[in-house]
Specification:
By secondary structure, this protein is an alpha+beta fold. It has two helices and four strands; from the N terminus they run E-H-E-E-H-E. It is 23% helix and 22% strand. Strands 1-4 form a two-stranded antiparallel sheet. It starts with a strand and ends with a strand. The structure holds FE3-S4 cluster (F3S).
Length: 64
């Protein structure tokens, strides 16, 4: 599973990094980026999906 952040949509809400810190981190301006090329570690799939569905800007895409 991989996660992608559309940086043109991200407004820096930051909830993704709270919901799934193993996949998402925030840069110094508070915008999201993925760790490890967006690769979702085993066992973190549900958190990654929660992060995606919780993004107010719908900026996160998850691919199985
Ligand atoms: Fe950006 Fe959405 Fe995360 S707006 S900081 S990708 S919750």
């Amino acid at each position: 599973m991989k996660a992608y952040v559309d940086s043109t949509k991200c407004s820096g809400y930051g909830t993704c990094a709270d919901a799934c810190p193993s996949v998402f981190e925030l840069d110094e301006w508070g915008y999201a980026a993925t760790r490890d090329d967006g690769l979702v570690p085993a066992g973190e799939e549900e958190r990654a999906r929660t992060a995606a569905s919780g993004c107010p800007e719908n900026a996160i895409r998850i691919e199985d």
